[in-house]
């Protein structure tokens, strides 16, 4: 048995799980919620499903916090029991198209492409360096969100810019959330009792960050996030798709003092927060929506943009066997799921309202005559990270795939 630590740094939370491999038994799960920056909530779930919550305001690093909690609750006796560490890395660009063992050279390459995911990659790298300091002899593996999208056809990953910008600067669609989309697609195939290679799926990762992916024959065919995780759907604090001319206009009229401020607004002050002016949290926005028109508008915009992408991918795939909802909103917000599915009636999508509201995940809330299944599947990015980490540290292999030449 090997104990593998999986570290999943998101834009609003940090999830760390310890697995016994290859049995895939989760020994503990730790979550740090960054929603309240001054009073972060830390929860640890133990094997007996006991949930312990505490508030965290100290300066301790996330990996150090995880190790302390694991020892405190006697999940491990010493840090040396951990045999490998897997890290979720949002953006690998074309440098990293498969999970790979982390070396000093890999860290340098990651630093060189931090601009592709400015909210995530620097934090991911910090986690790697932190783990290296605390567990210097423990092998570490990078698992990339972008790797699932490396099979996109060129008509889907290229922008209609001069092709020289792709050749010289590698400006293209990379996508994100690939670890989550990959996991729920595999789970959907199990639920439907069909080979993933035979399915057409539209997977919706709806959380603080949000994206939609069209999956054809088990591979990502198109996805809503682009060059960075900023584009695509409207998100918690990210704007999603915006006409570039609008940004040039705002810069010319000094709405932003410089490009850095512009990027900060687009990444941290837009989306649900920017429109509602209430919160970045969908739960709070929904509570306010009955008396606050801006909160109601934010929900309508969020749903509308999701349906825009579903409609586009429905056409690209020629229909779909299932829509898969995952992520914090996708898994837990039956109201948002209902609003989305109501707009899809013209596609023959039909759902059971009661089934949508009261059911343990995973489940299917489509009617028998619906044109597609409506699956709610909890994502488990940490398990996918653990699987890749165990495989690479057991076989001592890493993979690299050359860029497509055009």
Automatic annotation (TrEMBL):
A Pfam family assignment: Acetate_kinase
GO molecular function: acetate kinase activity; ATP binding; magnesium ion binding
Major localisation: cytoplasm
Active site per the UniProt annotation: 145 (proton donor/acceptor)
Cofactor note: Mg(2+). Can also accept Mn(2+).
Residues the record lists as binding Mg(2+): 8, 381
Entries under NCBIfam families matching the protein: ackA
Subunit structure: Homodimer.
Protein name: Acetate kinase
């Amino acid at each position: 048995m090997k104990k593998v630590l999986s570290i999943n740094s998101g834009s609003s939370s940090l999830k760390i799980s310890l697995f016994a491999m290859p049995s895939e038994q989760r020994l503990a799960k730790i979550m740090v919620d960054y929603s309240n920056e001054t009073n972060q909530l830390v929860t640890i779930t133990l094997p007996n499903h006991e949930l312990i919550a505490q508030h965290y305001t100290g300066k301790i690093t996330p990996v150090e916090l995880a190790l302390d909690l694991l020892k405190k609750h006697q999940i491990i006796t010493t840090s040396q029991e951990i045999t490998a560490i897997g890290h979720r890395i949002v953006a690998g660009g074309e440098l990293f198209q498969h999970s790979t063992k982390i070396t000093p050279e890999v860290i340098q390459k990651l630093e060189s492409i931090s601009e592709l995911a400015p909210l995530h990659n620097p934090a991911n790298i910090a986690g790697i360096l932190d783990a290296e300091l605390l567990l210097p002899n423990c092998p570490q593996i990078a698992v990339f969100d972008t790797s699932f999208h490396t099979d996109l056809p060129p008509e889907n990953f290229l922008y209609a810019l001069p092709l020289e910008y792709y050749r010289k600067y590698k400006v293209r669609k990379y996508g994100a959330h690939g670890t989550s989309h990959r996991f729920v697609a595999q789970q959907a195939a199990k639920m439907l009792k069909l080979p993933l290679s035979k399915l057409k799926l539209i997977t919706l990762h709806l959380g603080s960050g949000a994206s939609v992916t069209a999956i054809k024959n088990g591979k990502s065919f198109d996805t809503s996030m682009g060059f960075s995780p900023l584009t695509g759907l409207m998100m918690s604090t990210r704007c999603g798709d915006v006409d570039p001319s609008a940004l040039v206009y705002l810069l010319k009229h000094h709405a932003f003092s410089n490009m850095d401020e512009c990027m900060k607004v687009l990444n941290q002050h837009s989306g649900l927060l920017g429109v509602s002016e209430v919160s970045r949290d969908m739960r709070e926005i929904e509570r306010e929506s009955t008396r606050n028109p801006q909160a109601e508008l934010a929900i309508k915009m969020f749903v509308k943009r999701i349906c825009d992408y579903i409609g586009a991918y429905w056409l690209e795939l020629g229909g779909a066997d299932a829509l898969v909802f995952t992520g914090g909103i996708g898994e837990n917000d039956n109201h948002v799921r209902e609003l989305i599915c109501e707009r899809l009636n013209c596609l023959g999508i039909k759902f059971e309202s009661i089934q949508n509201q009261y059911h343990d995940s995973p489940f299917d809330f489509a009617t028998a005559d619906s044109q597609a299944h409506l699956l709610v599947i909890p994502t488990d990015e940490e398990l996918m990270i653990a699987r890749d980490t165990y495989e690479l540290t057991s076989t001592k292999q890493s993979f690299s795939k050359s860029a497509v030449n055009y």
